[in-house]
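Tokens for chain A. Residues wanted.
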């Protein structure tokens, strides 16, 4: 038994309230269970009760046993002075306030619907399963799953906008600068995302703005400030970039390159930081208003066209400064652009609409155009519900479900888990 289960039972009043009495035998009426508190302090605020003939307004604390009150040292914490009811699975000791008056207790052990209790125990006994409801997931209604995934997608978008609004503050409300930083992070993918974001933060966007339409100078600043021009190579283009970087560094008072250089190790050549930064330079050399173009984009085709850029001639025959290869285009692949749509463009469109207090939801159409992502989590969910999941909104929602609910046993906060416990799936 977990306290979280008792929180759920109390919040949604899933117990027998007929002739309800406290542990001391006084009658108990519940007018409002209170507001669930996710921070420190009592579990529910502002409950309204009638105990005996006395009306009460105050807080409710929940424990498995009454003695947990003392185990958690609530008797010395003033935050618990206004607790009017102690809800427990098992009442084993009296609990007193500082003035030595008894806090009324409600024992739930014999009052919870046996089916709900059995379903709960069954759900949390699946310790060897990939997710707690793995055996039951195929039986969930498709409509219920899709409805929950839509809510989860917005939850994931909200989490992604936290970074965007942080970047907005750091950028003096300059959305173009925010997009540059966000795209830099996502051009770095998992391995170099943090380093690329540090790089973008270290370069005042006004410099990028002034150098727009000059691809060579943008390359010099990005590669140089990333620390990728620190070595010496007998390569004419390398020397030109290095010379240009030192000139621009002095001109714009750039300071020192970022502390941690981007990594090449275990990356496919197309994902080498040299190539990704050269592509980023090509994008910001193509347009003086990248944000304006992408924030209004409504279709995948439109975005594919926007990102139809080519790196400079040197990078068509190089992945790094060490060796040369036969000419090969280094355009952004559709799969990479899809990642940008998922992780940069749609979250940015959502955040911008939110900042403008608009309810425009064209970004939902856009994310739905992007194909289902391929990873082990999505593949495992597909095995449980074949053919139900078809696009990137689904795959992003499934990632949110797995990481934020399944992995941390938040089944009672999951719409599907809650339906299972109620026996309504």
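Reply:
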């Amino acid at each position: 038994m977990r306290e979280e289960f008792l929180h759920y039972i109390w919040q949604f009043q899933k117990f027998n309230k007929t002739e309800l009495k406290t542990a001391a035998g006084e009658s108990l009426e519940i007018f409002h269970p209170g507001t669930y508190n996710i921070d420190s302090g009592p579990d529910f605020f502002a409950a309204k009760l009638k105990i005996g003939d006395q009306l009460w307004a105050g807080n409710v604390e929940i424990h498995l046993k009454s003695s947990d009150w003392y185990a958690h040292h609530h008797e010395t914490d003033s935050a618990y002075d206004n607790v009017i009811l102690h809800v427990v699975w098992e009442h084993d000791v009296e609990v007193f306030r500082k003035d030595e008056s008894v806090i009324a207790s409600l024992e739930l052990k014999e009052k919870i619907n046996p089916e709900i209790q059995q379903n709960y125990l069954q759900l949390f006994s699946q310790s060897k399963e990939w997710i707690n409801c793995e055996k039951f997931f195929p039986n969930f209604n498709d409509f219920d799953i899709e409805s929950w995934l839509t809510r989860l997608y917005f939850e994931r978008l909200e989490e992604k906008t936290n970074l965007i609004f942080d970047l907005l503050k750091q950028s003096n409300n300059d959305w173009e600068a925010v997009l540059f930083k966000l795209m830099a992070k996502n051009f770095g993918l998992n391995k170099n995302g943090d380093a690329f974001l540090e790089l973008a933060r270290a370069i005042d966007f006004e410099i990028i703005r002034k150098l727009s339409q000059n691809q060579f100078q943008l390359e010099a600043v990005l590669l140089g400030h990333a620390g990728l021009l620190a070595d010496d190579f007998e390569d004419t283009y390398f020397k030109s970039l290095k010379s240009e970087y030192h000139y621009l560094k002095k001109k714009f008072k750039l300071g020192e390159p970022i502390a941690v250089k981007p990594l090449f190790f275990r990356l496919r050549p197309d994902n080498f930081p040299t190539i990704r930064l050269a592509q980023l330079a090509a994008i910001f050399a193509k347009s003086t208003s990248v944000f304006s173009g992408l924030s209004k984009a409504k279709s995948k085709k439109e975005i594919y066209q926007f990102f139809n850029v080519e790196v400079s001639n040197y990078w068509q025959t190089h992945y790094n400064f060490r060796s040369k290869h036969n000419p090969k285009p280094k355009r952004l692949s559709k799969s990479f652009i899809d990642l940008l749509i998922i992780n940069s463009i749609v979250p940015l469109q959502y955040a911008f609409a939110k900042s403008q207090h608009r309810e425009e939801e064209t970004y939902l159409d856009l994310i739905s155009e992007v194909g289902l992502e391929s990873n082990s989590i999505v593949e495992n969910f597909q095995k449980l519900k074949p053919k139900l999941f078809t696009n990137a909104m689904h795959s992003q929602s499934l990632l949110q479900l797995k990481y934020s609910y399944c992995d941390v046993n938040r089944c009672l906060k999951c719409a599907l888990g809650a339906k299972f416990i109620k026996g309504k799936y």
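The mean pLDDT is 94. Residues 3-112 form one domain.
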